[in-house]
Amino acid sequence: MEIGLTHYLIISAILFSLGLYGIITRKHAIMVLMGLELVLNATNINFIAFARYGGMNIEGHIAAIFVIILAAAEAAIALAIVLNIYQNFRHVNVDEVDNLKG
Amino acid sequence: MTQDVVLPLSILILLIPLLSFLINIFFGNKLGRLSGVVGTTILGIDLGLAIVVAFTKLTSYGTLHIIQNRVEWFNLGSVKVLVGIGIDNIAAIMLIVVTLISFLVHLFSTVYMEGDRRYPKFYAYLGLFTFSMLGIVIANNFLLMYIFWELVGISSYLLIGFWYEKNSASNAGKKAFITNRIGDLGFFIGIMILFFTYGSFMFEDVFAGISSGVMPFNNPTMLTIAGICIFMGAMGKSAQFPLHVWLPDAMEGPTPVSALIHAATMVAAGVYLVAKVFAMFTADALTFIAVIGTITAFISATIALTQVDFKKVLAYSTVSQLGFMVMSLGVGGYTNGFFHLVTHAWFKAALFLAAGSVIHAMHHAAHHMHDHHTDAQDINNMGGLKKTMPWTYRTFLFVTLALSGIPLTSGFLSKDGILAGTLAYANLTGGWHWIIPVLAFTAAGMTAFYMFRLTIVAFHGEHKTEIAKHTKENKLPIVLPLVVLAFMSLWIFYSPNPIDASKGWFHKMIVQPKSAVPDAYQWSFLLNEHAEEDATVAHQAEGSTTHLEATTGKPDDVKAAGHTTGHYLNKFQEESHHFHYIAMILSLLIAGSGIALAFMIYQYKLISADKLEARFKFLHTFSLNKWYFDELYQATAINGILVVSKALSWFDNYVVDGLVNLSSYVTRGFSYVVGLFDNYVIDGAVNLTATFTGFLGAKLRKVQTGHIQSYVVFVLLGILILLYFFI
Amino acid sequence: MDLITIAFYFFGALTIVFGAVVVFTKNIMHAAFSLLFTFFGIAGLYVLLSADFLAITQIMIYIGGILVLIIFGVMLTTRITGVEVKSGKIGKVQLAVAGLLTVLIAATLIMIFTTSNWYTADSVPLNSTVNEIGTALLTNYLLAFEAASMLLLIAIVGAAFIARKKH
Amino acid sequence: MIDISHITVDLVKSISLFKPETTLIATFLLAMILDMAFKKSKNIAGYIAIAGLLITAIFLFEQTGANYKAFSSLLVVDSFGQFMKFIVLMSSLIIIVFSFFSDELHNAHTKLGEYYTLIIGMTFGMFLLVGSSNLIMIYVAIETMSISSYVLAGYTKEVKRASEASLKYVIFGAVSSGIMIYGISILFGLTGSLNLFEINQFLVANKVATIPLLLSGLMILSGFGYKISAVPFHFWTPDVYEGAPVTITAYLSVASKAAGFAVLLRFFKTGLLDSIPGTSEAWQLLGSIDWHYVIAVLAVLTMTLGNLVAVWQTNMKRLLAYSSIAHAGYLLMAVSVMNDNGVSAVLIYFFFYMLMNLGAFFVVQLVANKLNSEEVEDYNGLGYRSPVLGVCMTVFLISLTGLPPTSGFIGKLYVFSAVINSGYLWLAVIGVLNSVVSLYYYVKIIRNMYLRDVESTKSKLVFSPVTIAIVLLLAVPTLLFGVYFTPIIEWANYSMNIFVGN
């Protein structure tokens, strides 16, 4: 079977789900962030695959670039906040940061 | 005085009490004791103006349906929203009722509230309340009416909860407010249905729309539903079953407030509303209204029989009388319903003020004797007040006669009219409708009984406590309003003939409006094709014989098709007239036996209390079985509460408490079942709703675990569920 | 099987296997390095999709930038030699629910992806995408480009503020 | 070489319409630099921010009547956007003024340079979001405002709950926007374009599969939904609102919500509106998905959850958080009718909501300054300890409940009338039932202020005349617009047309 759009989409779907799984099961804040990176990469696979099979549509590439840029910015902010959590709580386990609830 | 002046003057009447509110709220602390004087004076001026306006309207323009204006307020989409004020005959009369009673209450309170540390605030709230109430009276559209309707709710909340240090008072205020909101919910929906069907909030536009045959959602049933929704607002304000629970609790407010709110104004607002929009009710809606009114009148009369708190008796009696008014409107007795509203306002205000006078005297006496345990409102602690408080007694006795419906009083005229109306209605409609006059007469009899029970126990006989012995008659500002109000309860103000009001000015002025509902959906006996012209003719040339053919609607309802209606507006009025004397004799007999029974039991002690108890058990059992209340109550309410509470009991204190209370109350005996029904089923239903929403809220709250990852899980789940839900 | 197919399965497997390691491993450093291989696999897929510029960007920014940032984060918040470096355990029930949810999501997505019609067009052969991307960024997407620069500036200001010890 | 002359022409026109945003960028840079230069002055950045915002307002005002697709259709400049930008601008201004009086912020930091700078950055992000008509632009704009708000929520970084709030916010926000961009990629796959106008044309001309369209729509909604706190994307709201500094909580509850609603409406109208059979009155949506129903369901969930849970809250900020969720539900109700009346109702409601909600939060802030507490219990007797504050708070709360004669009533009136006008009577009934529930918790606060534990027991609270004046500046319009609201209605009716291209 020739490799087509669907193949890439399936990889993207699996990667997306794996990323979500990481986000909802990892305790360590940074591992949660890694899960997030997987989600964003899955998105990028989608964009590039759709661009390739949609007539070499450059818009998909642009979108992917912006996703990468924003992922970097988001990672920077998120890591800074995680560091701050570490200062205040002396750990970075997201499920133990639960004073605000109800 | 020309027509043009009426409306500006009305606005002035509306705004003057607001002035009193503003002065007392901002300068109250500086004024101190003076704030009462200021408030009373301002209301006196307002009363003067109201009298001028009302007399101008009734004498110079009595035949003119309404003096009103229409002003564009704002645009809603493409629709211009019009508002305005209008004075028709019922509004003119209401202006006097509201301002006079408010004035007397202001006067009364100068002594009664003496020494209260929030004295100026009390006057401020009274001003605000009067303002809002007058707003309801002069509104000629749903929008303004609804706004003032809510304002009345808020200001009554402030007044009922005035002594908020008492937990019960602040809870009573809240209960009144929330119960009223339930009614208002229906009111609001009704208004919205009408607005989006007819594109206007103005009464006349809505009526015109209805009579042109346009139906909400193209469905005549929706018109009935809209009518019932509007009526729900009245059910809340006028304490109709099953929303009547707030009124007895509201007795926690200062007694003058009870006189103002619970006798003459706020509770009358509902009846007033029904009268204002009478033209839009279909036959089915009217039947609903009549049934609700009857149930209210009967149930609360039965409850009033057993109360021992002076004010509670009056409270249930008020609910019962409001039931009478609503019932009268529901059966088509428009004039008599409104008539009873007016007459009742005077004598019920007098009763409450007399109660205030008694309680005030009891408090003073207790204070002097350093007794802080005896309940100053329990009638079993009174007795013999006739000797110590002669003026209060005299006025109280007279207005009790009025409430019981004894000739030479205004109460007789109006109640007699209502009862005749129910007979006429039952005769015209037949079938189960006969239950209405039966219950009405029974309730009337009970009214006479419980009022005399109250009079005899509290005023006659020996002093039952030392406190009662040491009571003294109050000062003039308390006694004067009593005398004025008692005086107003004489028959002569309404009709020269003490046993028939239909020739009096009141019946000439207050004419049933022509129904806007298409004939097919209205009782044929209420159709008065040439209502306005006919009324005019009747007014200008008395005794003229304009003969009208009876209109034909539902054929089987018209038993005497082809009859001429004479000078009567419609078949109903003619029939009422036929029943007038029967009703009079019947009601006199029933009231008389009620009074006689009261005397036998409480004055001469010919019948023991035990026998009485047994008797009541029988009566209640009978009435309950008749309505299947018992079964309904067992099957739905108790079992429902049990099932739900079992499920929730691990979690919920309210229901656990409710269960404990419930089981203890069930054992108390059957004679209190009606009271029980009132307090625990209806309250319980309200509580249950509150508990249920609270329960849901608490459950939903658990979802907010504080764990960010579970939030993400919920988001993902949410998206999945939504996806599969909408596919 | 031609070369393209083999390459696809290789990079696909690389991506998914190491992606799985990232989210299943207990050791955070293992996770970080698995992430590297995942990114690398994705870059390979980009090459197969003739997105050369993206492949380079992926390697430069993700592997050179974001991953390094993450590893710094790990080092700053955990003692490498201590036991703390392991990510803690989560209850079995939660794991089962999470697993079920993930499988459900994956199944839904794959079902939708395999059964839908997508926008397709005949592709224009391109030597390099760099030219196209450059032009697009400075014409049609100029504003987004400038806004992104503003965003990065905001991110720097914010991150520097939050991460620094004392004000 | 590519011919770029047509792009240059567009660019020149676009830049002239981009003046407000340009001013914001300049303000951002200026505030940052001058804050470093003037080390002594505590609020210098704040003053610059105010000045910058005022200039922005002038430029924004100049755009009245403009209808233009700027920057190759990345951005739309229209009167709808102008209204929403004014809402954002006014709340930014008000929040900066609030911040001058925040003990919480001033105790934590000697200088607030980054704080004001980031507020300007966030305003910039929201301006972009309000005007965006390209999915990538929407994503960039959402991230711009989000990144600023993550930092602002945790601005008092030594406070535990603030840092917790910002952690939760950043994780939740990142996941939501991650899901959104995945949804965007699917939409891109379906239509081959990222531009809303082109997507619209594609959808008009072609039939696309329903299920992926629905999926991508829901995923994109998760990005918008988290901005406007719609259930089930609301989970961050209570925690972040409670943890963040009061000023930021107030800001998030109004400004970012406004931007979220703006982009939500624009997404539907520009992207999914079938412009062929008459555009104005009732919108004809493309595709076989009943978006009315989807949004209506979200609205019901949102307001019901918000109100039911609010009943249990004891912390004012948390209570107002749930109340703001409930208000998002009312607004979604107006969105769900998807016609111009609905848009106009959203605009009207938002204007009044801004006044009353910011007012309520400012009172919370002032009380917290004095009492160091945000518990509802500590409001006991407030009406006697500070009469003016008590009366104003009562006005705000009554207005939030939606009772006459306050502006909140007018807002609700327009929302309900838009809903009923479109025949969704059941939705209106649920809405009204919800406002009955909301009465309970709002009245609880009023009762605490007036009817509990009063007078002599506690000392008077004295607030500076300036703060009282600010409260009054919000309370008086809240009341005044309840009676005379025609200008707002007219402004909203003028602004209700969302530009959909030619």
Tell me what you see in this structure.
The complex is a heterotetramer of chains A (102), B (727), C (167) and D (502). Chain A is an all-alpha fold and 102 residues long. Chain A has one domain (5-94): Helix Hairpins (Orthogonal Bundle). Chain A has helices at residues 5-25, 29-53, 58-89. Chain B contains 28 helices and 4 strands. In chain B, strand 2 (71-76) and strand 3 form a beta hairpin. In chain B, strands 1-4 form a two-stranded antiparallel ribbon. The radius of gyration of chain B is 26 Å and the shape is globular. Chain C is mainly alpha-helical and 167 residues long. Helices cover 74% and strands 0% of the residues of chain C. Chain D has 502 residues and is mainly alpha-helical. Chain D has a domain at 290-502. Chain D has 21 helices and 2 strands. A two-stranded antiparallel ribbon of chain D has the order 1-2. In chain D, a hairpin with a 4-residue loop joins strand 1 and strand 2. The mean pLDDT of chain D is 89. The chains are: A mainly alpha (102), B mainly alpha (727), C mainly alpha (167), D mainly alpha (502). Chains in contact: A-B, A-C, A-D, B-C, B-D, C-D. Chains C and D meet through helix 4 and helix 6 of C and helix 1, helix 2, helix 6, helix 7 and helix 8 of D.
CATH class of chain A: Mainly Alpha
User: What would the CATH topology of chain A be?
Assistant: Helix Hairpins
Q: Greatest contact pair?
A: A-C, 75 and 84 residues
Using the CA coordinates, give the radius of gyration of chain A.
17 Å
Radius of gyration of chain D: 22 Å
Number of helices of chain A: 3
Mean pLDDT across all amino acids of chain A:
90
List the helices and strands and how they pair.
The complex is a heterotetramer of chains A (102), B (727), C (167) and D (502).
Chain A lengths: L4 H21 L3 H25 L4 H32 L13
Helix pairs in contact in A: 1-2, 2-3
Chain B lengths: L2 H29 L2 H27 L5 E3 L2 E6 L2 E5 L2 E3 H24 L6 H20 L3 H19 L6 H32 L4 H9 L8 H18 L8 H4 L5 H10 L1 H11 L6 H22 L5 H22 L2 H35 L16 H4 L1 H15 L5 H20 L5 H25 L6 H4 L6 H13 L16 H5 L21 H10 L30 H33 L5 H19 L1 H20 L4 H14 L6 H31 L4 H19 L1
Antiparallel strand pairs in B: 1-4, 2-3
Helix pairs in contact in B: 1-2, 1-4, 2-3, 2-4, 3-4, 3-10, 3-14, 3-20, 4-5, 5-6, 6-7, 6-8, 8-11, 8-12, 10-14, 11-13, 11-14, 12-13, 12-18, 13-14, 13-17, 13-18, 14-16, 14-17, 14-20, 16-18, 16-20, 17-18, 17-23, 18-23, 25-27, 26-27
Chain C lengths: L2 H22 L3 H21 L3 H26 L14 H24 L14 H9 L3 H22 L4
Helix pairs in contact in C: 1-2, 2-3
